[in-house]
Structures are given as structure tokens and as C-alpha cells.
Structures
1.
Amino acid sequence: MVAKKQSMAIVRASRPNLAEFAMYRPFMERFDLTFFFSGIARGKCRSQLEGFGLSGVKVVRYTCVSDLVPSQFIQRGLDYKIGVGSYMLNHLSDVLAHDYINVVDPAFGFTYQISRRIRPSQKLIIVRWENIYGRYDRIWLAARRANPVLKRADTIICVSQAAVSTLHLPPGFSGKVVQVYPGIDMRGVPSNGNGRAARNGSSDGRRPVVLFVGRLQWTKGRRPCWWPCKSCTTRNN
């Protein structure tokens, strides 16, 4: 008898970060995965995921506050200065129907929406990319909601040592913190003969290959400034 798969909702504020998202390919054997996103067209998101062998992942584009504003400049201000741009205006109940809910840093409004309504039996996973000390304090609403979101998390996955070192956990946090570098699972994606991975390959018994994707630009928040403040001292070490 085949065990019933559990479900996981992966909720993000924009297009898929393929350096992270391709890591979820092995999870498809155990979970029904649904990616909730905003910012780009559903068809474009679908094609990006299929390029990494993730055709089995369902995709749902939700409407957020930023969709109501035509200017990208104002959209960024709503999210990264005030913290309301990514609040979900629909599909929140669909997210909450999953066994596991995977979100990102509490700078985004949907993380607070989810943490307020998630049931005790459900698992909340936070993937932390942020590596700037005190970043949540600089966003008006994030400073007020970060602690409740972090406190509710069952697991916080930090993608770098910098993300671990700048994480401030609230009193009462009972989950666990792990550090996992992002990578891409290339098992079952054989070469098509010109050095590139074939899109629809299947496992052929060869040794697995792991491709690590790193930054090509200067890391955010690590450029030293002229004043030796606590923030810069922490993030530049």
C-alpha cells in the first residue's frame, strides 16, 4: 500500500529563486508541492520550473497589495520600507490547507498572515536569506511582526553562515535552526550531449551530481562603511 503524500505550500513574494527552488525536487517523492507566488505571469513561472525538472509542482499566482500599484518604485517601497506590499489578497485559505507551509523572512506580509492563522498541527518552515543585522527593524511593519512569526516557526533554515549569525531569536522560540547551503539536485537529469542538462531526463543509475549556485555580484550588506557600528561589525565578519 502506497502511503499518502503530505502536502507542502511554498510561498514566495515573487518569481521562483531557482538556486533555492530546485532543491525541492527530491521532496516531490514524499510531498505534493504547490508554489504560491506573485510578480510574474503564471506561464512564465511554469516554464522556469519545468526547465529544472519540476513539472510536478503545482503553481498558483496570488494577488497581493503590490499588484494594485503600477509603479515598481512604489511597489518596492510598500514591501521593503513599510512591509505591506506582499500581503495576500486571495488564496490564503489554499495555503493554509497544506500540512507544511514554507515561507521566507518575516519582512514579507504574507508570513505574518500565515503565522496568525496556521493550526498547531501544521508545520511552519522559514527559509532565511537575510544577512543584514537588524534588517527587520528597518521595515516599519516587519519590526512589529517578526518576533511572532519567528516564535511560531518549527524550523528556520538559514542559507549561509551570515544568515545564522544575524538571526535574532525571540524569547520562547522552541523550534530548531539549521544551516543549509542552496544547491541544485541534478540526479536524473542526464546531459544532452552539449554540456547542458536535458529537461526531461530520468535517473539512469549514475553517481549523483550536485551543482552549487553562488553569487556573481557583491554580497548584499557586506560592503564596509566608514563608521564601525555594531551592524557593520557583525555583518562584515
2.
Amino acid sequence: MAGPEISVVIPAFERISALDGCLHALAAQTLPPSKFEVIVCDDGSRLPVRDALASTLGALADRLCVRVIRQDNGGPAAARNRGAGAAIGRYIAFTDDDCRPEPDWLERLLRHFAMRPEALVGGGLRTTAGSDRYARATQAIMDFVYAEQERRNGLRVFSTSNLALPASGFNGLGGFSSMFQRPAGEDYDLCARWYGGGGEIAYAPDAVVAHDHALTLGAYWLQHFTYGRGLLQVRRRLRRTGVSLRPGSLPGSFHLRLIASPVARTGPRGAACAFLVGLAQAATAAGVLAELAVPTFRPKARQAVESF
């Protein structure tokens, strides 16, 4: 029998309930179960995922081919690489344990690959009906970034909440960089290396994943602070290639338009969201400063620095 056309890779750490919901969403895919597989890489959860979700895995066995592998805690980039290394599909689709793919997610991704078989594809993201204010603010940021990318040519970057590409191309790049030990920057870096190597990048807004960040104010700040650290790492690597994340933008103009975007879209009732978007940008700036002061990654003198 032919193997699956596409492999879904999910890094998982501790969020058992969220992962349970993600697996149920994948079991509801319109793509026949024989055409895809799901690989969960347990990134050293205290209670092993295989044990915690034994009843769910058993109940979904006739609708979902799931393999659970486990590694010592190494971060999401390492977990994605480990999962991708076990994949047997022609294409690999990445999502996260707190995501809920729409029922036609994989079917639509494969339609895009039928037209562009060698492309890296970023799918659409949205919040859920019950998302809190922090999730909505994070989504507003992503909406703005993706819309900006559609307005111009050049490098496009997508979140690993919804990103897919040919397995051969992913392996040819060497996967996600182990330089990124925190959950931030490894997805943009992968897109940049793909683009720098001449690879095609496409946006598939109809292949939708719902991503619900359940956050407190402190967790929201920390999330965007971590993004700032990762963003600086990506920019340092991009600088060596002459590629810019935002070509042609006036200094500061991107951030001002980003903060104003909720109000521009919904009027005065978007003011609270705009405040949180501004707070996220302050947290990102703080993360950049922290990374400048104490870099996460210091290559040894004899160590070859990764390049595009």
C-alpha cells in the first residue's frame, strides 16, 4: 500500500489537554486517514504523553494514525526535527499542541501542493470563539504581518502553527536550527533559509488552523519578550545575506501602523486591542535588548556558524 501523502508533526510539552483537542481536530479531517499520519514528539513531559493520552489514542485509532516518540527536553525546534525525522510522507505539515486545524486543513494544503509541489506553504491562522484578549491581540499582530507580506515581494515568514513543505526540502535544509532553543525565531529562520536558497514560498489563507493562546498578562509579556530575543537572532543571520524582513519600510513606521491596526480595522472599539499590541511591541523590544546584552547563542571560535 502507498504511504501517507503528508505527515503532521506536533511538538508537545506538558499541555496534555490541549494536545487531546488537537488530536480530535485532526481525527475530523476530510482527508482520508490513509493519506496522512500524525507524529507527536513528546519533549520530555513529566507525565509521558503516550501514558497520559492512552485512552484518546485508543479511541481515535480507527480514524487517526498517530505515532508518539519521546526525547529529553530540548525545546520545540529539536522536537520538530525529531518528529520530522520519523515522518514518511512526501510533505510535512507543522502545527502546535494548542492548535485546532479546520476539518479541510490537510486537504487544502495538498491542493496547494498540487499546484506548487516544491513550495513552502504558510496557512491561515485565526482565534477561536472563546479566545481571550491576549489571544486576540496576538492574532491581530499575525494578521497585520501576513497582510504586509502580501503587499510586497520578497521574503515571507510564517508561524510553525501552520507551515508545510516538502520533506525532501526540509531535510535538505537540515531542519530547524538548533541555535533556537526557545520557542521563538526558528520558524522565521527556516523560511529565510528556504528563501535564501531560492525556494518558493506561498501563502494559503484557506488552509486554516485555529490557534488559541490561553495567557495571563504576565505570560503574554513573556511570550513576546521571548519573540524579541528570537527575532534579533533571525535578523543577525539575515544581515549576512542582505535580506530584510521589511524591505522599504521607514524606521518605526511598521510598528506604528501595527499598533494602530486594530483601530483602523474596527474603529474605537479596537483601542483595547491596540493597547495590548503596543504592550507586545514593548515586550519584544525588551527581548531584543536582553538578547543584545546577553546573547542566547555564542558560537565557539572553532565552530562553524550556520549560514544560508
